[in-house]
Amino acid sequence: MTIHLSPSYLSPGVSGHTALPARAGISLKPEHFRAIVETRPDVGFFEVHAENYLVDGGPYHHYLRRIRDDYPLSVHGVGMNIGGECELDIGHLERVARLLERYQPESFSEHLAWSSHGGVFLNDLLPLAYDQATLDRVCDHIDQVQNRLKRRILLENPSTYVEFEQATMTETDFIAAVIARSGCGLLLDVNNIYVTCTNHHLDPQAYLQSLPATSVGEIHLAGFAREQDAAGAPLLIDSHDAPVAEAVWTLYQTALEHCGAVPTLIERDGNIPPLPVLHAEAKQAEKLLQAQTENHA
Question: What is the pLDDT of residue 294?
């Protein structure tokens, strides 16, 4: 049975939006710790992966505490296994809860995916079969997470490379059903939309328009790698190791028209460039955010 959260459990904001500012943020990487502390760049917020901070001390926490004092913070989980067939790892959930209690981030998000089974962690974000049984399981897991964290979480739309024959719902219908039933919000990853739609020969504009706009609390932008499948067709990989592609920037503009000015992250996990390079991408996103705000003023 799905248990809906009381309003007191929801993080600040209305209509599914978080308290992050409607600005552009950057993934916080150790390569940039010193530069951020020393130069305090004009960045809307920083985002960290929860799993890098699930210990009590060390240099990561030293710098995160200093940076948190000056900037809004988003925490992005990659290991909750919300789509998994097994029960949630309560120890992992407790460690995440303690991290959020320690830093009080403006936003917490996780993935619509599974990453472990039978006690084995696979270090990947794997796709789901979109059917009623999966919907029930995902919603039950989200309820468990939200009730423990005492806040509304954002759920990220996935990048996928295979589809399941037994699926009875489209991905967008499934996501909308999860949001409606669990009360969670949506982390709209525009790069994931472009990757998924290219791989499955779908229209990314139509996919975007099918998602519930008022539930979007954060947007992610990232780069992808281009490969070919066994048939020679284009295969995009959500690699997070390259600049945001022009096609994704174009789709981002459509996303802003669909959702309004929503906090936007430049996500980079590999081939980390100097801080000014990522800052320049954030400034590009911020210009589009400002234009959207001005158009609706």
Answer: 85
The pTM of the full predicted model, rounded to 2 decimals, is: 0.90
Look at the block and give the residue holding tokens 């809906």. 4
Half-sphere CA count of 157, side-chain side, radius 13 A: 34
Give the end-to-end CA distance of the chain in Å, rounded to a whole number. 42
The answer to whether the CB of 51 falls within 8 A of the CB of 78 is yes
Domain extents for the chain?
Answer: 12-295
Gap between the Cα atoms of 23 and 43, Å rounded: 8
Domain range 12-295, CATH architecture: Alpha-Beta Barrel (3.20)
The vertex-185 CA angle with 78 and 176, nearest 5°, equals 105
Residue 209 DSSP one-character state: H
DSSP 8-state secondary structure symbol assigned to residue 118: T
Dihedral sign (CA 50, 63, 267, 289): positive
